[in-house]
Amino acid sequence: AQRVTQPEKLLSVFKGAPVELKCNYSYSGSPELFWYVQYSRQRLQLLLRHISRESIKGFTADLNKGETSFHLKKPFAQEEDSAMYYCALSGYGGSQGNLIFGKGTKLSVKP
Amino acid sequence: GAGVSQSPSNKVTEKGKDVELRCDPISGHTALYWYRQRLGQGLEFLIYFQGNSAPDKSGLPSDRFSAERTGESVSTLTIQRTQQEDSAVYLCASSSTGFLTEAFFGQGTRLTVV
């Protein structure tokens, strides 16, 4: 079965500290993985996707097929990074609503 | 409008009543999605509209749930005989490409069934 697991409901770090938001997935084929972010009182928006291999707002995520993980990392957290982060999986290129979301991790960056 | 608009933003209803949630997508977006997130849970897919094609209703949890969309305009999600487990944030998103990863999400409607 397709599944996305984000083991941490809440992650609290100090400003300037490294942060890693964990995401593990279960999928039999070749999935596409995404990270979404929702800042306080704002809309859910796409942060990055693994196929782009991009860095957005200092965040990166590498797909590790051996460990079936797609952890989100940032070397130096900023207070404005505080938000809800959702990992998502798609086996169909992200179309037709076939994105499966994890339960989300709330990141709190303290000054 | 500038983005996807959902109304109401908050709705409290009594168990057993019917509710209608509205989504105004971005003009010209052919794809529209409804998701919900119950407390402590991940986002659950409900239904997907793409242009004039038959909607993908595979995520609707029961026959109490239905959704309509006329053309590429407003969509309404209707929940009949609401139950407490229907309490959730209902999110709508629209996309010009049909890819959810290129969609814009609304702010959501927080539904509380008491």
Labels describing this entry:
heterodimer; A: 111 residues; mainly beta; six-stranded mixed sheet; three-stranded antiparallel sheet; 11 strands; B: 114 residues; four-stranded antiparallel sheet; 0% helix; 46% strand; globular
How would you portray this structure in words?
The complex is a heterodimer of chains A (111) and B (114). In chain A, the strands form three sheets. In chain A, strands 2, 5, 6, 9, 10 and 11 form a six-stranded mixed β-sheet that branches. Chain A is mostly beta strands and 111 residues long. Chain A has strands at residues 3-5, 10-14, 19-21, 24-26, 32-38, 45-49, 60-61, 72-74, 83-90, 99-101, 105-110. In chain B, the strands form two sheets. In chain B, strands 2, 4, 5, 8, 9 and 10 form a six-stranded mixed β-sheet that branches. A four-stranded antiparallel β-sheet of chain B has the order 1-3-7-6, with no helix packed on it. Classes of the chains: A mainly beta (111), B mainly beta (114). The A-B interface holds A 4, 9, 32, 34, 43-46, 49, 86, 88, 90, 93-104 and B 3-4, 33, 35, 40-45, 47-48, 50, 56, 59, 91, 93, 98-102, 104-107.
What order do the helices and strands come in, and which of them pair?
The complex is a heterodimer of chains A (111) and B (114).
Chain A: E1 3-5, E2 10-14, E3 19-21, E4 24-26, E5 32-38, E6 45-49, E7 60-61, E8 72-74, E9 83-90, E10 99-101, E11 105-110
Parallel strand pairs in A: 2-11
Antiparallel strand pairs in A: 1-4, 3-8, 5-6, 5-9, 7-8, 9-10, 9-11
Chain B: E1 5-7, E2 10-13, E3 19-24, E4 31-37, E5 43-50, E6 65-69, E7 75-79, E8 88-95, E9 104-105, E10 109-113
Parallel strand pairs in B: 2-10
Antiparallel strand pairs in B: 1-3, 3-7, 4-5, 4-8, 6-7, 8-9, 8-10
